[in-house]
Amino acid sequence: MLDSDDEDSSSAASSSTVLSDRMSVYGNEEMELNKDNLLDEAVDALFEKRGATREKALSRISEAFSSNLQHEFVEKKFATLLHQCLNSIKKGSSKEVSLASHAIGLLALTVGEGDNAREILDDSFTPLSQALKSGSESSKIASLLECLAVVTFVGGNPEETERSMQIMWQLVHPKQGSNVVTIKLSAAIITSVVSAWAFLLTTMDGRKLNPKDWQQSISYFSSLLDKNDRSIRIAAGEALALIFEIGILEKFSSEGEGSSDGSVQEGNKSKEGLMHIQGLRAKILNQVRELSAEAGGKGSAKKDLNSQRNLFKDILDFLEDDYTPETSMKIGRDSLNTSTWSQLIQLNYLKHFLGGGFIKHMLENDFLQGVFGFTPTKRLLGGEHHMSSAEKRFFKSPNSAANKARTQFLNKQRMLSEGKNIGHYAVNTGDGDG
Questions:
Q1: CB-based contacts of 187: which residues, under 8 Å, 6+ apart?
Q2: Do 402 and 347 share a structural domain?
Q3: Is the pLDDT of residue 182 over 50?
């Protein structure tokens, strides 16, 4: 990673060739060490002044974290990686912001629940919020939203989750004021906001939500079902299905049946609210029915049209008969199954975020396995299986149980060998350890 344009471009062009050459010369363990070295170099490159150098480094980091579980690397350089990525979000180009956002999300999924995940959310929330308010490019906004959604999903409590959802909501419904500039949002940004918002809603308990805060969102999503953009309609449909599943409308209805203090005025307000909710539900049902049978428009892609029809047929079945779609996805020798809208939305969102690394993470990422209640066969059988490179490194780690037992054995040998030639003993021990 050098500063000159020529050196920087030639370095990037040859990196994959260098790695493949090393792979052909060295064994698997040596190859893993070289990968770790390349990752170290990529993090060091985040301190470089040239934006292009940092962008290339962030791409390599994201690729490494997507394709493998980088637990050992995280133990060494967690704080460094996080704060350099946050610096990129604060000062970098739109491309650098997008790459850094993705890297932070991957870092959160790698560390899983715990203190590190909370630190990621605590340190990232303000920079991400500020970047979302100041940005306008669709790809940049989408990456920032995905990052905020993922780090909140992993490390947030209910209050922090609502806080993140509120930040997302303000993008499509900015607070009214004399200093608020209203800009027309692209279809891509609206879709990203609705998808990220719904993804976080999957973690919330509908019984504890305030109805007054939700009536506006339901009306808004209903209005999105009438938009021309199909991606917006699909995202809004999934959000509404989730809202029905967690019982928010039912909560409205139950609270509307009585008044807060028994007064006639409050009772009338409650009845009006209940009638509004019932009317809104009937409207949404009609919209869903129409979209499930849409004939399609000029130039509409058949695949997208079929996706919309299938989705809204599922939503219609759910609203009318309480039937939720069941899905199954092959992960290695096993199947990952979903049976609720919440699980389906989580699965689709995380698949999209991880891309080609989703299968690898599902097979080895304890946090994601816990999210979906998925246990690979090798974990169940307890029988022989080929250890992954990560497992091999774990057993060689100074803190591993296997290594501690080995150390205890060697200590006993040293105690028995007191009085022998120390130099000769050291040489023999070196040979035996290799």
A1: 227, 229, 231, 232
A2: no
A3: yes
